[in-house]
């Protein structure tokens, strides 16, 4: 059994506002799946449902089913689930009170690992995977806040990887970054997909075209179309997808 | 023409602000210099080491009052700081919007503004009369009642300053809510929380009214926390309202010690954690 995600009849509310209206979607293992769509279409809500982060906000509600690796995520403890489904946010959010090193190992350390040599190995491995090691290896004790925006975002990616999840959710991870930092992150995503199932929400259609194996187009809380990225961008089957990617709205 | 008028107005306004600032500073420096001037002459080593002496004998001090203030402020901190911080955590992290939180928040605002003599009377009725005697414990307890709302409010403000994205980052790593609060949120807010707590300590160190009915005061050393205990503010009050010149001198010296204590607490709250911020 591979780790894949099946979403069935997923509905989500934010207060009385229904932001997801019955999503059916299968997400393939070790693939990059991009979620595109205009603002407010529910794409962020969708990924936030997969690690049950949506429910942490007051006044929210979810209905439907998400099966991860054969088991419903709603039958699992959300804290345990989030160790398997990591998340990177739109704005870099390193822990302000912690050093670079402590940021990276926060997930494993606060969950009980105390052996120093293991923590050090995890920190180095994660920072290397996030392509940040060479830039920070001489100042691991500096505050995480001392890094640039792009470095902070890679630090957050390293922090998510350190927990060794199998799925990585990325909610517009490059939208607050400059083109060079964006390029770093995209390169990283291409490398990570060998080991991870990645879902990336993006506003940037070129970005989706560059990095995603498959792309899903969301509109007004519905999944309009989901297929191989090349099909979505060159031969969409739905008129609305075509209008959106050709820039007629959104 | 217009420019000249504007520059003139600008100059006028700046002058008014500057003058107002100086006027505001006059009472502050007035009080400080007056206390220093009057207090420093009565201050001696004996003042810190000796007990008060009977009228007519020289060499009396306020050692018991200084220690008493420190003990009762310590008792108040022991009760007030943990309760205040824990309540603030509940209000910001667990239950921001319910009727209970809104009620508690309203009550803390009211309590912050309540005259401290009322706290004294309430503790007198509720604790002193029930226990049958004035005591240091009742005094510390009264001070803690004044501290709690101050600490709840300051801690809550500090916790609210922390972006929700920091909490989400913790949850997203599979860290439980309790650990996220304890190991991520609290350390991030620690500087502000400690500053708020120290300012609350400084505030109650100078309270007189709640101690008058609770700890009462004592011319000797208290042998246990269950006995009346001297404190600087109460001792100052009693000496200053006495008819004796020597006691007036002692009251000034006590005022100087008390004001120094409060200033030291304030300054250390502001500076102790500044160096660690970078």
Secondary-structure topology with pairs:
The complex is a heterodimer of chains A (250) and B (278).
Chain A: E1 5-14, E2 17-27, E3 32-36, H1 43-50, E4 60-68, E5 71-72, H2 78-84, E6 85-88, H3 100-109, H4 116-129, H5 133-136, H6 149-162, E7 167-171, H7 179-192, E8 197-201, H8 205-211, E9 214-219, E10 222-228, H9 229-234, H10 239-245
Parallel strand pairs in A: 3-8, 3-9, 6-7, 7-8
Antiparallel strand pairs in A: 1-2, 1-4, 4-5, 9-10
Chain B: H1 2-40, H2 45-49, H3 63-94, H4 99-113, H5 116-131, H6 136-160, H7 164-172, H8 177-205, H9 209-212, H10 232-240, H11 245-271
What is the 3D shape of chain B? Answer: globular
Chain pair sharing the greatest interface:
A-B, 29 and 21 residues
Q: Could you name the CATH class of chain B? A: Mainly Alpha
Strand fraction band of chain A?
25-35%
Radius of gyration of chain B (Å):
23 Å
Number of helices of chain A: 10
Low-pLDDT regions of chain A: none
CATH fold topology of chain B? MetI-like fold
Structural category of chain A is alpha/beta
Average pLDDT for all residues of chain B: 92
Report mean pLDDT of chain A, rounded to a whole number.
93
Order of helix and strand elements from N to C terminus of chain A: EEEHEEHEHHHHEHEHEEHH
- How many separate domains of chain B? 1
Number of helices of chain B: 11
* H and E order of chain B: HHHHHHHHHHH
Can you tell me the CATH superfamily of chain B? MetI-like
Walk across the major sheet of chain A and give the strand order.
6-7-8-3-9-10
Top-tier CATH class of the domain at 5-98 and 167-245 in chain A: Alpha Beta
How many E strands of chain A?
10
Description:
The complex is a heterodimer of chains A (250) and B (278). Chain A has 250 residues and is an alpha/beta fold. Helix content of chain A is 36%, strand content 26%. Chain A has helices at residues 43-50, 78-84, 100-109, 116-129, 133-136, 149-162, 179-192, 205-211, 229-234, 239-245, and strands at 5-14, 17-27, 32-36, 60-68, 71-72, 85-88, 167-171, 197-201, 214-219, 222-228. The longest helix of chain A is centred in the middle third of the chain and has 14 residues, at 116-129. Chain B has a single domain (63-277), classed as MetI-like fold. Chain B is built from 11 helices and no strands. Chain B has helices spanning 2-40, 45-49, 63-94, 99-113, 116-131, 136-160, 164-172, 177-205, 209-212, 232-240, 245-271. At the A-B interface, helix 2 and helix 6 of A face helix 7 and helix 8 of B.
């Amino acid at each position: 059994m591979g780790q894949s995600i099946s979403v069935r009849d997923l509905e989500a509310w934010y207060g009385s506002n229904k932001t997801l209206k019955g999503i059916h979607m299968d997400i393939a293992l070790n693939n990059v799946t991009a979620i595109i769509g205009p603002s407010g279409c529910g794409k962020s809500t969708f990924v936030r449902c997969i690690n049950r982060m949506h429910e942490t906000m007051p006044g929210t509600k979810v209905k439907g089913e998400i099966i991860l690796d054969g088991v419903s995520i709603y039958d699992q403890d959300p804290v345990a689930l989030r160790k398997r489904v990591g998340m990177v946010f739109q704005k870099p959010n390193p822990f302000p009170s912690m050093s670079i090193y402590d940021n990276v190992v926060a997930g494993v350390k606060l969950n009980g690992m105390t052996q120093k040599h293991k923590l050090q190995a995890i920190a180095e491995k994660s920072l290397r995977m996030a392509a940040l090691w060479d830039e920070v290896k001489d100042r691991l004790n500096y505050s995480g806040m001392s890094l640039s925006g792009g470095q902070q975002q890679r630090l957050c990616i390293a922090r998510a990887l350190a927990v060794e999840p199998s799925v990585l959710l990325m909610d517009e991870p490059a939208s607050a970054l400059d083109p060079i930092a964006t390029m770093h992150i995209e390169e990283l995503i291409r490398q990570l997909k060998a080991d991870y199932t990645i879902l990336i929400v993006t506003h940037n259609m070129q970005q989706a075209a560059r990095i995603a194996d498959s792309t899903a187009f969301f509109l007004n809380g519905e999944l309009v179309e989901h297929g191989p990225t090349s099909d979505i961008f060159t031969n969409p089957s739905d008129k609305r997808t075509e209008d959106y990617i050709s820039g007629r709205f959104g | 023409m217009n420019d000249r008028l504007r520059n003139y107005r600008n100059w006028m306004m700046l002058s008014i602000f500057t003058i107002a600032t100086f006027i505001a500073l006059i009472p502050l420096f007035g009080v400080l210099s007056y206390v220093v001037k009057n207090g420093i002459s009565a201050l001696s080593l004996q003042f810190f080491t000796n007990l008060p002496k009977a009228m007519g004998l020289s060499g009396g001090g306020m050692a018991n009052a200084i220690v008493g203030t420190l003990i009762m402020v310590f008792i108040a901190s022991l009760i007030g700081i943990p309760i205040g911080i824990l309540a603030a955590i509940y209000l910001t992290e667990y239950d921001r919007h319910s009727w209970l939180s809104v009620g508690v928040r309203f009550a803390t605002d009211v309590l912050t503004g309540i005259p401290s003599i009322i706290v004294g009377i309430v503790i007198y009725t509720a604790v002193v009369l029930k226990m049958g005697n004035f005591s240091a414990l009742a005094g510390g307890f009264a001070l803690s009642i004044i501290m709690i709302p101050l600490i709840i409010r300051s801690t809550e403000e500090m916790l609210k300053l922390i972006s929700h994205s920091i909490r989400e980052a913790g949850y997203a790593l599979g860290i439980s809510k309790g650990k996220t609060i304890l190991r991520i949120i609290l350390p991030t807010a620690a500087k502000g929380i400690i500053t708020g707590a120290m300012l609350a300590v400084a505030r109650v160190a100078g309270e007189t009214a709640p101690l008058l009915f609770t700890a009462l005061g004592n011319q000797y050393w208290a042998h246990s926390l269950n006995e009346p205990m001297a404190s600087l503010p109460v001792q100052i009050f009693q000496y200053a309202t006495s008819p004796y010149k020597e006691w007036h001198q002692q009251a000034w010296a006590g005022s100087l010690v008390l004001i120094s204590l409060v200033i030291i607490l304030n300054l250390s709250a502001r500076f102790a954690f500044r160096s660690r911020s970078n």
